[in-house]
Amino acid sequence: MRKLPVIFAASAALALTLAGCAGSPAPSASPTAGATAAPQAAAGSCTDTPSGKFSDSVKVTGDAGSAADATFDSPVDIDATQRTVLSEGDGPKANVGDFGILNFTMFNGTSGKKVFSTYDQGSASLSMVVDATQFLPGLVKGVECLNGGSRIAVAAPASEGFGDKGNSALGITATDPLVFVVDLGQVLPANDPSQLKANGEAQPAVDGVPTVVDAEDGTPTVTIPDTAPPADLTVTVLKKGAGKVVESGQPSVVQYQGSIWGTKAVFDQSWGKQPFAVQPGSTVQGFEAAIAGQTVGSQVIVSIPPAQGYGDKGQPQAGISGTDTLVFVIDILAG
């Protein structure tokens, strides 16, 4: 499966990403403009970020979990990221390699002006890996060792923000520090195997739908029937989770395996790598449609006709032609 450069845009919650390393069921996207990745703790551990003068100066209006406005001492003049916990949650702690779903408001640390907020994008919060090679190092430092459900103020120097390229779309120059107000929601521990597969209740089999047998770690083996694929997008729930509903346009964290109906060949999967953080608009249409309306903890299987997959051009490097129907098994881990 093609490597995907992560989108970097002022109009999406992906404004914090650096570079995507994992394959994904997604269309091509424009490269990012980001900072140099900072050293980080080993996976499964974390380094606590101390508070300081500038993070302590952030005064926030608005309740946790809702749009934030803030004032702070500017210009921010620091060499390392500072974090102040405004309210502490009781969820799992975010270690390196874990997955978190968060909302945030971002400010230019020089001018004090708000430049972006996920809360202005409806339900489009950010699914992120706690990994400084994939996301702005200052944000990762802010979230590391933080309990799910917490609200924090983060002040980050330019070197741990957008770096020497800045971000012209956001009006951020190469020397501008950043200030964030972050609401960290669900944290998904990457070192807990039980959290990395669907745990819902098995549903009755449906005739004509590919069957799935899961290994102990959740890796699926799919048996596709020797029949013509459905002409339309077909989504079947194999396991029904008890978690919240993933609304259309909402980010999620999933495991997936993709195969081709005709050849039965597996062309990509997250199992054996890491779960995939799905951002709204970042994957093929049929993949997101299969997740929308489902509950966390569910496993679904979807057959995607070309028009809602890779179109008539296919994906040659993955062995997908313009007429191939795709089959994805998707375990919904968080949303």
TrEMBL record:
Gene Ontology CC terms, in alphabetical order: cytoplasm
Keywords: Isomerase, Rotamase, Signal
Domain PPIase FKBP-type: 97-188, 249-335
Catalytic activity: [protein]-peptidylproline (omega=180) = [protein]-peptidylproline (omega=0)
InterPro entries associated with the record: FKBP-type_PPIase, PPIase_dom_sf, PPIase_FKBP_dom
Entry GO MF terms: peptidyl-prolyl cis-trans isomerase activity
Signal sequence, start to end: 1-29
Name used for this protein in its record: peptidylprolyl isomerase
Record organism: Agreia pratensis
